[in-house]
Amino acid sequence: MSFMTYLGKRVMRMVLSLTAVSMITFTLLQLAPGNFADIQRISAGAAQFGGSGTEDMVHAFASRYGDDIPAWRQYLIFMKGAVTWDFGPSYKYPTQDVQDIIAQGFPISATIALIAVALSLLIAIPIGVYAAVRQNSPADHGTMFLITLGTALPNYLTGVILVLFFTLTLGVLPSSGWAGPHYMIMPVLALVLGPTAVLARYVRSSMLETLREEYVVAALAKGGPRSTVIMRHALRNSLIPIVTVLGPLLASLMTGTVFVEALFRIPGLGLYFAQAAASRDMPLLMGTALFFALILMTMNLIVDLVYGYLDPRIRAAGGVSRWRRSQKSPLRQPA
C-alpha cells in the first residue's frame, strides 16, 4: 500500500467518523428532555409573567431558535455550514459565532493540557525507570499501587480535594477564574495525576522489556556501569513507544477538561461545552463536539502517519493500534 493510498483511506475514515459523531450527538440532543427554546421561554415567563407563558411566547421562541422546523432539516442546515467551518451563532451567546467561541476557548484548554502533559512526563519517566530497575521489590509494589490509585482517581475529584486543601484550608490559591499564572496551578495538578500514572506504567513496562534485550544484557555482562547502561542505552530505546501514547493522551487532555474547567470556572472550551449541554445550545454543543472529535482523530492520524512512514508494516496493518494487536503475545504484555 502506497503512502498516499494509506493517507487517503485514513482521511476518508475520519470524514465518516465525524459524520457519525455529528449524527449521534444531534440524535442524543433531540432525545434529551427540553430544548433551548423551552428553557428560555420558561425563564422569560418566570421573570415577566410569573411562570405563565402564553401561546404566542411558545411560537415566538420556537421560531427564533429553529424549533419549528423538522429535526432532520435542522441537522442538514447545521451540517451545510459545518462543511465550510461556519457553525452559526450560539443560542446562549447570540453575538458570537460558534467558530469564534472555539477559537477563543481552545487555546486556554490547549495551554492547560500541554503543561499537564509536560509535567506528567517529568514525573512519570523517573518513576517508571525506578520501578523497572527494582522489579518485584517493595519499592516497585508501592509504586504500582500509587500508579493504580492515580489511574482510578478522576480528575474532578482530585480538583475538589485540591480546592479543599489549598483554598479552604491554606487559603493560598484561588478556587476559580483565569486572571494569572497562579490560577493554572490547581487545574494543572488536577489533570496531571491520571496521565502521570498512565505514562509511568508505559515507561516501566517498556523499560522492563528493554532491559531483557541482548545488547543491554551484554553491556552489563562486560562490566559497564549499571547507571550508564540504563540511562544511555535502555532508557533511550524505552521511550520510543511512549510517542504513540503522547498524541492521544494530549488530545484527550485538550478535549477532556470539561469537569476541571467547569469546577475552576476556566473560560476554556470544556466550560463552553458543559454550558452548551446544560442549556441545550445546539450549535455550540454540536460545534464543540465535532471539534473535540476532530482533535482526537487528528492526533491519532499524526501518530499513525509518523509510524507508518517509518515502518511499512504499520501501513499494511492499517494503523498503530491494529499493528499492536497483531503483534501481541503473552511475552509482550505489560508487566
UniProtKB/TrEMBL annotation:
Give the residue spans that cross the bilayer: 112-133, 145-172, 184-203, 239-264, 284-307
Q: Which residues form the ABC transmembrane type-1 domain?
A: 106-307
Name of this protein: ABC transporter permease
Q: Recite the UniProt keywords alphabetically.
A: Cell membrane, Membrane, Transmembrane, Transmembrane helix, Transport
- Describe the family membership recorded for this protein in Swiss-Prot or TrEMBL: Belongs to the binding-protein-dependent transport system permease family.
Where does it localize? Cell membrane
UniProt topology in membrane: Multi-pass membrane protein
Report which superkingdom the organism of origin falls in. Answer: Bacteria
- Predominant location category: membrane
Q: Which Pfam families match?
A: BPD_transp_1
